[in-house]
Amino acid sequence: MRAAVVVSALLFPALSFVTAAAQVPPTTARLSAEDTARHVFAVLAGEIAANTGHPGVAYTELLKAAKDLDAEPLYRRAAEIALRAGAPDKALAAAQAWRRAMPESREAGSWVVQLQLMLGRTAEAGATIAQDLANTPEPQRAQAITDLLPLAAQATDPAATLTMMRTALANQKQFAQTDVVLGVLRARSGDQKGGFADALHALRTEPGLAPAAALLLQLYTVNPQAADAAMGKFAAANPADTGLRLAWAQAAMQQQRDGIALGALQQVVAEPSAPPLAWLLLGSLQTEFGAPAKALVSLQTYVRLARQQPEPPVLTSAYLALSEASRKLGDFEQASRWLDQIIPTGGDQSGVLSGRAAILVQQGKVNEALKLVETLPANTAEQRKQRVLAQALVLREAGRFDASYKVLLAGLKQMPDDVDLLYEAAMMADKSGHLAPMLQMLRKAIAVDPQSQPAYNALGYTLAEHGQNLPEARKLVTRALELSPGNPFVLDSLGWVEYKMGRNDQALDLLQQAYDARPDPEIGAHLGEVLWQLGQHDKARAIWRQAIERAPHDAVVQAVLRKFGVTF
């Protein structure tokens, strides 16, 4: 009985291959019952050998059976056994026999190419690809090129594979898919700009090509403006593709291009297949853009859809966002109730405490908010920094800029080289009228962290605003834009520098780009001023009206309206 069980276990993996062997008709002649039985037993013998530690015997038996039966599953199995036995050369021989027997099989060609690359036979792999594509009918060739993408994405030597693939695809340049394959390899070889250019060219050739859009989004920071334009056309060609449009929104949000993200998300949720995450992101942006009532609807939709999933996600971020939207509507009780629903995880309640503190500040209970923030943990340097930042935020939101500045200065005494504290202290120094310390702290932040984009941007903008060293200001902001391409706040700063330097046309172009990416009131204030100076008063008024409606108490917006004597 035990022996029967063992034999059964050994034979079980072979059953699918036996079935395949029995069902595959010969290509030249009808097999006799005796021949069929012989081949079936050959397959069984091969599988038994494979499962009892004799891969060489298994390989020989299965490859012979594959050739006799002209059976693709058996060629594949022979190649797998050889590969697992550490004999890639034998696996290649099996794959090549498979390809010769079935030249139309893309899988056989893929096996040959991957094994050739594994064995370092790059030129041979290129020749194989070129020959297979030449033998593929033109209507199917685009898909055959697309099938090369996994190879490009997983190549262990992307640079060598790129060289090979350029030769292999030299006669396939008319296909947009060729650009995508080469673009993936260029990006993986370190040439992100080249990969982006390939993806962009592919989308210009075929606006609805999903692999090209996916590559473009992976390289989004190379040129966000160009990516947004191409993705707009892609979305129009593929209105039901919610996955890539959601990825587009997320890429835009990472560069603070929230206006672009908002438009993409609104398109995503209009589709029945919209993923729940789209509603969460949309609600967060609606709150930020002054539409908290709409945000509540979006966020509650997310919660409902999330709860319907087989494995519902943790809803902490949703409840925090719901609380923020309710607070902005002035419904403090509901804002607190949303926070009450957050289940503590790992003892971290900083988000909940910050939310409650924000509610207290809006109610005018600043001291209570400060006491609440003081309960935040302070066991580590990072926790102490976060508590200082939270205290400074409470005071800033309450309009107590001097007090916020002092809290941050006290924090800097304990952590003098912390870039976050330096930046926030510089911002409060500016609000408190301490220009020299502000500039000093921003320069120190850059010295400590040469990649600190916010510090470069703030320093350049401040110098321009005060008419100090405009060439340096332009250099600083240009560096910030290199660190955060397409960031609308940095585009705004660069536009403002150009305006201060008297280059109004260049300023207008940059500020319009910034406002298109994110219709922020302060960006609108700057754009309106340049439009006004260029004599486009109606356009300036329209922009300012939007800004004042969104932020009626914003100091920058109010200042520009007073400057030009405009009232609404």
Which structural class best describes the helix and strand composition? mainly alpha
Outline type: elongated
Number of helices: 34
User: How confident overall, as mean pLDDT?
Assistant: 90
Short description, anyone?
This protein has 34 helices and no strands.
Could you describe the 3D structure shown?
Mean pLDDT is 90; it is low at 1-30. With 568 residues, the chain is an all-alpha fold. The longest helix is centred in the first third of the chain and has 19 residues, at 33-51. It is built from 34 helices and no strands. The radius of gyration is 32 Å and the shape is elongated. The chain has a domain at 1-119: Serine Threonine Protein Phosphatase 5, Tetratricopeptide repeat (Alpha Horseshoe).
Give structural attributes.
single chain; 568 residues; mainly alpha; Serine Threonine Protein Phosphatase 5, Tetratricopeptide repeat; 75% helix; 0% strand
